[in-house]
Amino acid sequence: MILLVRHALVDACGVFLAGRMPHVHLNEKGVDQAARLADHLSDISLAAVYTSPLERARETAGALARPGTAVTIHADLNEVDFGEWTGMAFDELNRREEWAAFNRRRSAMAIPGGEWMADVQSRACAALTAIHRAHPRQTVAIVSHADVLRVLVAAIIGTPIDRIDQFTIDPASVSVVEPTWRGFELTRLNCHAYRHHCCASND
Q1: What pTM was computed for the model?
Q2: At a CB cut-off of 8 Å and minimum separation 6, what does 198 contact?
Q3: pLDDT digits (tens, 9 = 90+) for 134-161
Q4: Among 6, 52, 119, 179, which one is least packed by beta carbons within 10 Å?
Q5: Taking a C-beta distance cutoff of 8 angstroms, is the pair 185, 178 a contact?
Q6: Domain architecture of the chain: domains with CATH
Q7: How far apart are CA 196 and CA 39, in angstroms?
Q8: DSSP string of 95-110?
């Protein structure tokens, strides 16, 4: 079982596009969210925790890790490179036609000075595959960012990148994927610590 975890809350959420900005840390509510999620998952034995290099992801990963559990930074789990948009307030972005065009059709719109979403999806899928191969019969957690996890989920369920806004991955949420003979199967999406049995089996 592989747990896909979005980092917990930061002050930037809904205010400005943090992207790969350094020194963006969990806020007080985010610290509490990460702690509650760790408590909720405490009965699950994690062989390893893999995380984006950014502080907010590493802080969430640290909350999930137990004594003796390795936490590994994986570059392919990093946030989308939002290029020239990094650090901009959403109020300003929402007035820009290129931002609107990107959100209408992310597969066809390049981020100025940043990544193509198809490349984000490719590296996220490569990370998932490599992590599973390193832990083929173990449970691991992957801590990353909303759009990285959404394009990863989209690849698993066969949904186009342009439709990732049709589902949500909230801060401090966990989604679950299981390996199958065909690849991976999504069994839980956007579960929260206050929802019981979010990582339980389907029976």
Answers
A1: 0.93
A2: 40, 174, 176, 188, 191, 192
A3: 999 999 999 999 999 999 999 999 999 9
A4: 119
A5: yes
A6: 2-191 (3.40.50.1240)
A7: 12
A8: T-HHHHHHHH-TTT--
